[in-house]
């Protein structure tokens, strides 16, 4: 059932990806630039290591000799060697899996992704013994019980980052899906979002027609998954694009504080434009939720790399939407038992000890 992609397919997908960068631009250009930036940084670190390491060892040896500790030299020098090892580890893009944009992956990869979602919909719930519930429905459940606390506040982005990570891990552990998450870059199609390839009836989200959602927010109310297009004036058939246009997102990425960045309107345009389940706290019933949030995570990742002062740890704001208490990097991210709780600081680096992916 699970398709393994041949090398040639992967290369085809990469070629399609590169062609698109030339044609459409959008944020893929920014991603390429930031990736190039990281590669340059790694190369510089390598060069610095090669040049500086012998000097450092020489100096260390001299100091140890002078202080009469020559017999413990090897042992004491090892932390330095450990540091060096992390500097020369392979560039991030090869160490960790790359998350890709929906239209840049092959049709076969799109189908594998959809199969993984259908598979989660066929597995019993991990969180409840209710036979109507599935592994997939555990996610809207967590989002509506715990995740809603994080909306309109500082933990919004870290909480969803970890939520996506747990979802990705469950796709792998329950359904053998190795392909990684994909995202929907709405900036590439912002003036006609309703024509985005993610809505293609065959390769897009057609396979989910007729799916039943048991809850509507926290109310038990079994219904068919629903979705539509609606603009801010309530007219049907069209989604407002202004908040997700390349220009708007460019402005959001230039915001100087985390609090301003997390408070921007970019994440609301899609849920309100699609309506149905997507605008409730059980939004993850709609599989498109995960593509939308992976895009938000990608934008946060881009923004994080542009912070000259605090870097990846730039974080500030209120703990909850209606609280004056301030959030901290040591606050807990709760997954209601589906995965271990972690701290916000654990998810600030997507290539750290807990997470390993890139864009
Ligand atoms: Cu959410």
- Stretches where pLDDT falls below 50 for ≥5 residues? 1-25, 53-90
Helical stretch tally: 11
Class by alpha and beta content: mainly alpha
The run of helices and strands is: HHHHEEHHHEEEHHHHEEE
CATH homologous superfamily placement of the largest domain: Di-copper center containing domain from catechol oxidase
Mean pLDDT level: 79
Helical residue percent? 40-55%
Radius of gyration: 23 Å
Question: Quick gist of this model?
Answer:
The protein has 359 residues and is mainly alpha-helical. It is built from eleven helices and eight strands.
Please specify the SSE layout and strand pairing.
Elements (H helix, E strand, L loop, with lengths): L6 H18 L3 H39 L6 H15 L4 H4 L1 E2 L1 E2 L5 H16 L15 H8 L10 H20 L6 E2 L28 E5 L2 E6 L21 H8 L4 H5 L6 H6 L13 H17 L27 E2 L8 E2 L13 E2 L1
Parallel strand pairs: 1-8, 2-3
Antiparallel strand pairs: 4-5, 6-7
The structure holds copper (II) ion (CU).
